[in-house]
Design goal:
about 80 residues, about 30% helix, about 15% strand, Amidohydrolase
């Protein structure tokens, strides 16, 4: 989960434009054999079986300049 979270954080996408993040999430769910519905509100992914207690993620970001300098810094600041 940490690796997936870092991939999402390092490569953010704006709301309703999270096509690569949605693809990543669907790929991970496929690996786990977890059925899902897609698309939900353009890029959303909804787990289709209710036996999960909690699995939630906010996929989109705000277009802000990040000032932190650390290993997993988002690349949003460098995109046009």
């Amino acid at each position: 989960m940490v690796g997936i979270t870092r991939k999402i954080y390092e490569n953010p996408e704006l709301g309703y434009e999270e096509f690569e993040i949605s693809k990543l999430i669907r790929s991970e769910l496929d690996k786990l054999g977890i059925p899902y519905n897609n698309p939900i509100s353009v890029t959303g992914v909804e787990i289709s079986e209710p036996h999960f207690v909690a699995l939630w993620a906010n996929m989109n970001v705000l277009p802000v300049q990040e000032e932190m300098d650390w290993e997993h810094r988002t690349e949003m600041c460098c995109r046009e």
